[in-house]
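The authors assume throughout that readers already know how a fold can be written as discrete tokens. A single example would do more here than another paragraph of explanation. An entry of this sort, consisting of the sequence and the corresponding backbone structure tokens, reads as follows:
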Amino acid sequence: MTGRRVLWRAVVRNRWQLGTGTGLISLHQVCESLVPILIGVIVDQAIGPGDGGALLLWVAVLAGLFTVLSMAYRFGARRLMIAIADEAHLLRVEVASKIMHPRGIRTDRRAGDLLTVATTDTDNTSYLLDYVPRVAGAVTATAVSAVALLVIDVQLGLAVLVGTPVVLLGLQAATPLITKRVTDQQNLAGEATSLAADLVSGVRPLRGIGAEHAAAGRYDEVSRRSLRAALRAARTQGAYLSASTAGGALLAGGIAILAGWFALNGTITAGELITVIGLAQFLMEPIGTLAVVPGWVAEARASADRVATVLDAPALLPEGTETLDAGSPDLELRALRYGPLDGVDLHVRPGEFVGVVPHRSADGEALVKILSGRVAPDEYEGGVLIGGTHLAHLDPDHARRAMLVEPHLTDLFTGTIEENVTAGGPLDESTLAASAADQVVSAHPDGLGHVVAERGASLSGGQRQRLALARALTARPAILVMHDPTTAVDAVTEHEIARGLRALRHPGSGHLTTVVVTSSPALLAMTDRVVVLDGGRIAAEGTHAGLAVTDDDYNRAVLR
């Protein structure tokens, strides 16, 4: 898929609304161009001879012309606005569906940039449906005006027919530069938006390590680059607009001056002079529209190119076809190599609660990234098996139902607490207690109906973590993998959560499996077994109590 194809598809799938709207807008422009012609006729046929009856007749015709003119624009604009809104909606849904597809997409764009593509760029692309009728109307108006001028005087008509293409061709030379600068502007604006989203979501950790000034400096640099690109694009488009306006004005002025000369020589009548001057003034609008269209199309094309890169992005995960039998699957890692991981072998049995302690945070992040399906199978070595089936061979929906991976940094969504926890399913009070999210509910007068701001900005870091954990527990997956789920809560609450997790998912001889990647002693104390990662490999294994006694490195990493 290319940007050109995205634009062409927008035209094709809105052809009925676009065709009807374009026809009505063109009719409106025909009527607009007939107004000065009709005024000239009134002067020659009624006012000049002093014929009152003819004057009434032609004024009635003029009133009818204005009625058709107004109605054509009203209904044409309505058709076109429907087409633009529909196309923008369809593009947003397509882009969002592509981004949220269970198989994921291979892209270098970050979340903020993808959000810009799904909103701003889809809107800009749909605006092509506004440009097409504008061009058609401008061409129609120019053609009708040229024919009228040819009838009045051949030289005047030829001035329009020759002068208009000359002006447009001269301006066309700037189109590639406009396209390039608009594309640069949109790419840098997307980069700035993406960085802003990352910084807002991570503002608390940045403050914790005193890095907010460095982060602000980085954003300032990216923002300034985006500003410079926007100013370059604006200057280019401003110069182009000035040149196009001047070109159209000179052409219209030249026609009016030539008509005045012909009137003095008696070549044309007074009414024809009025018609020519009116058409010359009227022509400035369609010629100006035709002159600025390349800039509009350049912006739509740049946005369509960005939309196309998302829609055409290949899937991150293969199209797995295998399914899992009902029951409790196990989780097995075989000689897993990715990033810092250097041959990890781990078998987690059904119903087991296992803790993974990475001495290096990169080891834990790499492990969680693979399990969450954010790494393509061809980017790592070894295998991840669920119930004896390779993760890459499983249908993504089955894989996600069998194993849920809750990353360290999670997002909440605009809505109530209950909507964030249940995600549309039934509410389970036990998950609120196990995650200590019931304390978050009781802290707000509206309880479960308390409205959460976008990305959970209205809550503290600990409250967001507890609600995200409650959401994961409510899903009740057969295998639940968590990465540092309690880093933002206090020690007392952390112990409550650890006991709640154990009681909820491992009350006795259950079949739910839990893996927690953490260095929290409260959580590790509740596990059946602890695995230690060091240097990308499993360096030690045992119970939390046993490792605390025998492994000094484990003590330094965990017991704080």
